[in-house]
Write a structure and sequence with these properties.
Blueprint lengths: L1 H18 L18 H6 L11 E7 L3 H17 L14 E7 L1 H12 L3 H10 L13 H8 L6 H13 L14 E8 L4 E5 L1 H6 L9 H8 L9 E4 L11 H7 L6 H14 L5 E5 L2 H4 L4 H10 L8 H6 L2 E8 L17 H40 L3 H8 L11 E8 L5 H8 L9 H17 L1 H7 L3
Parallel strand pairs: 1-2, 1-7, 2-3, 7-8
Antiparallel strand pairs: 3-4, 3-6, 5-6
Amino acid sequence: MRLRCVVAMIAVALGLGGCATVYNLPLNQPSANPFTGTMVQAVAPRALHLNEDGTAIGLAFSGGGTRAAAFADGVLTELAHAPAPRGARGDLLDRVRIVSGVSGGSVMAAYFGLKGRSALDDFREQFLTQDVMAALDTRISLINVGKALGGGINTDNRLRDWFNAHLFHDATYGQIFGPGRPIILINATDIYNRSPFLFAPATFAAFCSDLSAYPLAAAVSASAAVPGAFAPIVIETFPGQCNVPLPDWVSRVAHDPAGSPQLQAFAQALENAHDGKVKYIKLLDGGLADNYGLSGVTIARTASGTPYGPLQPQEAVRLRRLLFLVVDAGQGPEGQWGHTLEGPTGKELVSAVVDVLVDANAHSSYAAFEATMRNWRDALVKWRCGLKPAEVVRLRGNLHGWSCRDLRIDVGRVAFGQLDPARAARLKKVPTSFTLPAESVDDLISAGRDALKANLAYQRFAEGR
C-alpha cells in the first residue's frame, strides 16, 4: 500500500511537471558591434593598476549562500584595516585588483566591483542580514515539485528584482568596468555544454551580444541559480549578426586533445554558439562547474596567448608580488549516515551526490589553478629576463631596482579550518541559505577576518616578504 502511494505521488508530480513548464526569457540583446564603448577597454589586456610597490591581490569567493558572502565580507574588511607592506601608501584593500565570485560569493564580488570600498559600509545591512528567501517560493508542495520537474520553482525575476531593489539598482555590467577598478569575474555553469560560463566581454561577443548592457543583477542571479529552486537563466545567441571572429586561442584549445578538459569544453561552447549550433545558453549555479570560481581566471590566462597576459606589458614588468587567495566557505561532510550501515536515503542522498560533484570539481579546479599560476610565473620571468635594457626602460620608465627574477606569485586558501576546531565546527553547521540570523552573519564576518590573519601566504605578503 505504501509503495502504491509513493508511485501515485510521483505520477501526480510528473503530471504536474508536464503542465507546469517554467522558463526564463533571455535579457541580452544582439549587437553588430559588441566591443563598442566601455567594451573597448574591457577586452584589451587588462591593467591591474598596480601601486608603487608593484603588489597585487587576487580573490576568489566560493559559493555557499549568505554564509559565503559574509565570510568574504570579513576578508575584505580585514584587508581594509591592514596597512600596505614596507610603509607604502594605502592599505591592502587598495591592492585587490582581481575578484572572482561564484554563487553566494558572486554577490559580494559584484557589489564590491560596483561600489569599491564603500560596499563594506552597507553590505551587511543591505544583504547579509536581509531575509532574501522571503522573496522566493520555497514551499514544499506537489505544485512546486511539479514546477521543479518542469524547469524550476522560481523564475529569475524574483531574485533579480530583489538584488536590484537592495544592491544593484538596475546597474548594468558595463558599470563595473573603468579605469582603476578591479577586474570582476562572475561565474555560472553552462549546463548544455557542461562547462563553466564566464560573464566576460569576449564571451558575449562570441554570441554577437554586448555584455556592457546586461543587468548586473541578472549575472549574479545566474551564478546563484540552484537547480530545481530556479529555472535556468537563458542567454540568447545571435550568430551572423556581427563580424567579430572568435579569438585564435578558442580553436587551438577546443581541438587540443592534450589540453585541459574544462578549458576545452568552454572553448567548444563558444564555437557552438558562434557557429549557430546552439541558440540558447542555459545557465545554473556556478558551483556546479567550479565552486571556487577559479576557472574564469584560468580561462583569462589561457586566452591571452602571451607570456604576460592577461596583463599589459607595462604591468608585467612592474609586478613584484601577486597573492591570490581562495576564500572558501565550504561546508564539509554532513549527516550521521557515515556511522550507520544504512543510508544515505531521500534528501540526504540527493544532497550527498550534489556535494560530491561540487567539491570534486572545486578540488580539481584548485589544482589546475595552482599549476596555471606556477607556469605563469615561470613564463613571466623568462619573458622579463629576455627583455633588453632599452625595452625595460620603455615599459618601466627606468632600471632602478630592476630584477627580472624579482617576482613571486603565491596561492593560498582562507577557510574555516584555519580557526580553532570548535569554532570551525560551529561555522560549518551554518546553512548555505540566503537567510541567516544576524548573530551568524557577525560570526562569519569575524571568522573571515581571523582566518585571513592566520593564513601563512597572507602573512608573508603583509610583511612584504
